[in-house]
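Retro notes (design track)

What went well: tokenization of the new backbones is finally stable.
What didn't: we kept losing track of which sequence belonged to which structure.
Fix going forward: every design gets posted as structure first, then sequence, in one message. First example under the new rule, 143 residues:
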């Protein structure tokens, strides 16, 4: 499925068009337990801990957004995902399918794949996962 939106500028005038391919993951015949679909999110206690540590050390908190985060994760080889291309796609013919290499919005396990990817990157930088909250990483990035 292709979702199209029109982004507007600060005066609410049309600025640019945006289109993204979304998979209808709720139509999958696969079954995964909730543990297999689970991607952790920062707990309220974890947020409180980070905020209090920032205040204690006189640090400024910043929040960011990663563009197309779910689309950055590579799908594992043991999980082939084949989808119908969106209607009207000029690159495909009738009866053709796409075999995905990267995760897309709408896949049930997209959050889990993204968390696995970002965790691997942060661990390769020398950070360690907290034993109490899997979304909190600690360590030193300085040499």
């Amino acid at each position: 499925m292709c979702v199209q939106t029109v982004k507007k500028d600060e005066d609410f005038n049309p600025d640019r068009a945006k289109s993204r391919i979304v998979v209808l993951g709720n139509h999958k015949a696969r079954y995964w337990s909730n543990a297999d679909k689970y991607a952790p999110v920062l707990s309220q206690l974890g947020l409180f801990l980070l905020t209090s540590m920032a205040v204690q050390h006189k640090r400024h908190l910043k929040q960011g957004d990663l563009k197309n985060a779910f689309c950055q994760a590579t799908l594992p080889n043991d999980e082939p995902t084949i989808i119908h291309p969106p209607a009207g796609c000029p690159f495909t013919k009738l009866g053709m399918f796409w075999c995905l290499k990267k995760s897309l919005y709408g896949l049930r396990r997209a959050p889990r794949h993204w968390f696995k990817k970002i965790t691997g990157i942060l661990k390769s930088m020398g950070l360690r996962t907290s034993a109490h909250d899997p979304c909190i990483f600690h360590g030193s990035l300085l040499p």
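Added context from the reviewer: The mean pLDDT is 82.
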